[in-house]
Structure prediction request, 181 residues.
Amino acid sequence: MEYEHLYLITKINRSWGLQVARRTCICLEWGMPRLFRSPYVAGIQIMTQDSDALKKHIFPIRVYYEDTDMGGVVYHANYLKYIERARSDYVRNIGNDQNAMRDAGIVWVVRKIEAEYLATAKFDDELQIETWITALSGARLTMAQRVTRGETEVFTASVTAVCMNGQGKPVRLPAEIRALM
Prediction:
């Protein structure tokens, strides 16, 4: 597919909860920004619409009583638990066996989270967590996540994870795992 709205940028509207590295491209197809690494950066190619990395992963979750605070709304820290479950399910679904990675001495570690609380969720609400990859480099993966209740956007986050070895040192993402993403 040809992208009509593909151009180089260095920043994106912060309301999406995303931070964009230099030399990034954006495409405004499908009604929301899609981020791509620039084709002008050596070794990186633009993903196509059919690419698995572009597809949103949807993870449904229901709010239980234990998830709420005294005010009857979801306790703020529980959103981090929700998006962690969704990220774990996403990487499992694309074929990344995190147990095999750990056995090989490599683990994912969250380095940075930028989050925005936009609305409240309450007991028994049905939420959906959308997850997609926004950037991928040698040892770093950035994913955007959005929690919605119906059409209402409740929470957004940009999560950067890095690969680390057993000694806590950053390591390059193995080629076979990069290929999955």
Remarks:
- Residues 1-50 have pLDDT under 50 and may be disordered.
- The domain at 53-180 is CATH 3.10.129.10 (Thiol Ester Dehydrase; Chain A).
- The first helix runs from residue 76 to 93.
- The chain is about 15% helix and 35% strand.
